[in-house]
Amino acid sequence: MSALAQALHFPARIEWGEVNMPTMVTGNELRAAVEGGSFIQGGDLSCVEGVKYDFRLSTRILKARFASPIDASKLSETEKQSLSVEPGEAVFVLSEEKLNLPANMVAQLSPKRKLSHAGILTLGGFTIDPRYSGRLLLGLFNFSSTPFPLIPGKK
User: Fold this and answer.
1) DSSP H helical segments within 1-155, as ranges?
2) What is the dihedral of CA 82, 85, 90, 93, to 10 degrees?
3) pLDDT for 22-50, tens place per residue?
4) Residues 6+ apart with CB under 8 A from 70
5) Which residues are registered as beta bridge partners of 62?
6) Which terminus of the chain has fewer Cβ atoms in its 10 Å neighbourhood, N or C?
7) Exposed, middle or buried, 144 (CB in 10 Å: 0-12/13-18/19+)?
């Protein structure tokens, strides 16, 4: 999809006088979070790469042409084939996954390089606060001269 996440875990305060440093959730910890559905719910292990998780595009899309949010899975095959972000258009999408961050964790989002190469600018907040629970809502703005296809389930 349009973002990848890196989670920072802030452990409980260590004994008086010691520094409380955040740690990055990586590798096996990140895979365990996806498998166990702890702070990433509905995730896919193929989206875990080292220190990041690539979110997937859900079927829920807000595009001006449809006048209200749509479920792409209910579109005809012809409509699905033409589902895209047109040049100069902004479309809002939800992630397939849900986050359920504990009180001692933040997530940092960053746009995928592949999207910027395709002329897509990711809009939205890039820091997910502790205790956030829900899907991610991101805007996709097409500043290129060619349509960008929206494919539910794609990273």
Assistant:
1) 27-36, 77-81, 113-117
2) 80
3) 888 988 999 999 999 999 999 999 999 98
4) 60, 61, 62, 63
5) 92
6) C
7) middle
Q: Which amino acid is at 72?
A: A
Name the residue type at position 145.
Answer: S
Q: What is the pTM of this model?
A: 0.85
- Distance in angstroms (rounded) separating the CA atoms of residues 127 and 124: 9
Within the chain, strands assigned E span: 3-9, 23-24, 40-41, 48-49, 52-54, 57-62, 70-71, 84-85, 90-100, 105-111, 120-123, 127-128, 133-142, 148-149
Where do we find the tokens 């740690």?
Answer: 23
Read off the tokens for 79. 């409509």
